Batch of 2 targets.
Target 1
Amino acid sequence: MTPIPTPGQTVGPFFHYALPYDGDNELVPPAAAGAVRLHGTVRDGAGEPVPDAVLELWQADAAGEVVQQAGSLHRDGWTFTGFGRSATDAEGRYSFTTLRPGVVPGASAPFFAITVLARGLLHRLFTRAYLPGASDAFLDGLDPDRRTTVLTVADESGFRFDVRLQGEDETVFLDFGDE
Amino acid sequence: MADSMTGLEPQDVIDQEMRDISASYAAGSAVETQPRRDYAPYRSSRLRHPTKDLQQADPEGIELWAPVFGARDVGELESDLTIQRGGEPVGERMVVTGRVLDGEGRPVRHQLVEIWQANAGGRYIHQRDQHPAALDPHFTGMGRCLTDADGTYRFTTIKPGPYPWKNHHNAWRPAHIHFSLFGTDFTQRLVTQMYFPGDPLFDRDPIYQSIVDPRARDRLVATYDHDLTQHEWATGYRWDIVLTGSHRTPLEQDAAEEAHA
């Protein structure tokens, strides 16, 4: 018999002393060659910043290789593990220092895979943050009005990607057929 | 009517809303296995649930893999929450263990499990927790471990207490431990809460009740296990966790591990 998945629950308001850790949002040191910043603000349905959210980032390296390397929790400053975590601050902002992802063989366009957790959000959300100007079958299948919500915007330090949990400009969140 | 002192709605209002949703679910035929993100009795969800349908997507590329965690990431002692602060924490010492499986029933091996919880008095060490219960100098309430080759995790900790929150007047959360889990695919990521059998607060808690199917929410309740309980040392609870199915085609390496499991 196929087992039935365990239900999710909200991350709640008190995750800050457990989930964040030193260096969690620095997949590479800020001074590393090719380092870019992926950052933005998480907002709710009223447009207010969400100060108690946490985003997780999972991505390929610059060559498009899915690295399978330990060391995300205790980084040595050299090994790229592809995983990071960033809790939002009092203004709802998160930030990662990372590498521009390459195209993974078999996939069509490079993107940052993102998980969103927050107090008030009863089950995690998944989304994709594509590089500016990206195009693939998934993007083409979206309502044109909503496509921009999964495209990053280039800025002086890298890429900006704002997350909107609810509302007119609500981010496109994904269902992988498991829900 | 809101409570005159706190300005918060009474429990009765929340209870009625939860009963209405429950009756409406029972009258339908669809089975829901996950919490509703749109669950108004949990007031914080009102502005934080997506209002548009989630976009169906086939996982591709990076999403078919999960991050790897190893011994370098997690120290062996991090799974014992009773030895982190140089003395014995107050409360009921307990062992919590179980297996992490994927949607096909295969063990999720060597993956990270993170937990966090209140102390025996229902207080978190978090600065924003201003519930006037004592902090325990010997308890941080956070731990980590990796599942073993059989997908088993194991923690030694203290039974957390229930605690008040401000969703409504006289709102109390059932005792629970927060769990964070990874599978073999990115798409299997799960954050949830484990509860204890027979908690009198279950019916009054909108976070627990946001899983509208009674059988589905029962899956969050651990089982007391006397065989796990240790003489003059600790009580034992068992809780297995099932992540969603893996989308990735198993590699030869996976098959080899399977054969040796």
Target 2
Amino acid sequence: MADHVIHGNYVDFYDEKGPHKGILAWILTTDHKRIGLMYLIALTTFFCIGATIGVLMRLEMLTQGRTIMGPQTYNSLFTLHGLIMIFLFVIPGIPAVFGNFFLPIMLGAKDVAFPRLNLLSWWLYITGGVFAVLSLFLAGGPIDTGWTFYVPYSLRTGTDVSWMILAAFILGFSSILTGLNFITTIHRLRAPGMGWFRMPLFAWSLYATAWIQLIATPIVGITLALVAIERLFGVGLFDPALGGDPILYQHMFWIYSHPAVYIMILPAMGVVSEIIPTFAHRTIFGYKAVAISSLAIAFVGYFVWGHHMFSSGMSDTSRWIFSLFTFLVAIPSAVKVFNWTATLYKGSIDLQAPLLFVLAFIFVFSIGGLTGLVLGALATDIHLTDTYFVVAHFHFVVFGGTGFIFFAALHYWFPKMFGKLYNDNVAKVAVSLITLGFLMLYFTFFILGYEGMPRRYYDYLPQYHGLHVFATVGSWVMISGFIVMFINLFKAFKSGKRAGMNPWGGMTLEWTVPSPPPLENFEEIPVITHGPYDYHAQEEAKEKQEEFNHSAEDEK
Amino acid sequence: MGAKIGMWLFLLTELLLFGGMFLIYGAYRYMNNEDFHAAGQGMNTIIGAFNTVILLTSSLTVAMSITALQKGNKRLSITLLGFTIFFAVWFLINKYFEWSHEIRNGIYPKSPELLNRSQGEILFFGLYYVMTGIHGIHVIIGIVILSFMVSFIARDKVTPADYSKLENSGLYWHLVDIIWIFLFPLFYLLR
């Protein structure tokens, strides 16, 4: 995009002296880059906690009967694993960290539209996270309802559901404010010349995501609040004993929580659309189709919640309508996958770690998507519902989708965020270990589920033992991959080689500013003259320049 | 202005929050139509209508306050905001009498009197307390916000040149008003 020259000594945003010192310079900052980094620290911490819980659950399932914990602990752990991973990691995930850090830079803006609101979002996120952790120590012990808080059990359990709901409510508020901020930023702060169809695709995906955050979150907020009100005052809106309808709760819950699945995956797709053109050195194939498919996924995503309830008691008509709509989501998703592969086709591919993550993503996400069709079809769903097949499907989509791409994005933008380079070979080893472990762990779940192993069960029949052992070993492989990855990144952060402005040859605006960027990103707001990923135009410009040089030489 | 877009988007989320409750109301009314009908008979339409008038008037005064500030009349603007706050408090006082009347009659969540009634009536009053309660919380938040605006105008932090804060507060107050306009028929008139 626009060329940018660095003048003399710039001060990066780490060294910039603000009104506060020490830790206050961070937790009171309104700089979107610092806020993004604070999210990064918080999110990776929660990710590590959630992953540890996951490994403990896997250890429990290593043998039949009691291995390392009792059934009540197991119930609490799968609830916590779900709550932490969903509400504290994958939902805020990419928008909160990379959206905050890069959206303004990609748009050519100095900051988001409401910097102070942005800080408030972070504070709300931390408060929600702290409340969630606090609820572990309250009377009744860690909650054991599963992350969906299904009534009537969530009304009757002795564990303190209300606290956890309060935490989720606060996190929802944080999410709404981030969405609101991003929509306004995209509408108002694009650099001169940046029309809608000159926006990077990551910005497009954040735009679609922000609308879902804004429209879907209030509904789950009020639904969860009603559960809390019911527990506190006994109002009885969802309590079947008082005339309430538990199925209505499920509807209300999934009206949000299904679109939330797209809050998780759309930003990841946006990141993929950034990484692929950069490492294939080609203009993305079908830019407009990729951009609009984000909106299409967000839109259709609102009409599919019922597929979570095929076996909970709905009319046949609503079941097949929801099934049909569920199939429709596959179309825009496939548009993206085909466009990505088409971009890679005949590109000059530079197989670095971020692209390896993306290739692993396309592989596992396609499996996740296709098994989604298996679950979206009524007959097969009745067989597979509430089995490990479902667990496998959503781990392929959510972890293989958002999780993989979160780390892809971290590797892609690491040089820009920290100004350092990591060891690429070690990173490649990490990707391979993670992918291998992932497939050993979760692909086994497909087979287990198909054979009838129910989800959330503490114990199992002898015939499942072999597969459970295999899956547990897979979890160790995957975790060792994560350890390698974190050590590699940490070493790079400590003593990596200095990264230049544009180590990968990216074309979007963030690669035109120094690494790490200065406080307000740009010395001068850039003027945008052509679309992102315009490798074609770049080639032409280079050729013309060379021709000009030749003719100049000839004249001499 | 960015601030105004932001406010409208926020109001959208508020509408959806209440929208969730309207949805639940609609579903339960559909399932228990006759019980809802019967429960609605007991509501005091007069006091409900009176509160509607109060809120509508308060929306008028907040709008006038914005215009007054735009025209540079600081004192009138503050006075009109004072009226708005006064109406808001009055609304809450009426609500207090209404609620305590119901509670004296033994109608409140988990009360033996209510548990004896049909499930539809339990749901009706459950929704009544929850929806008017959450609306009441919004009224209280509105009073706090408008009080801040009074002090901001007095200390020239909101001025005739830069009044977007006051405008956004006014938008919020209109929303509180509009939501009541939907709550009123659902609980008082539909019977």
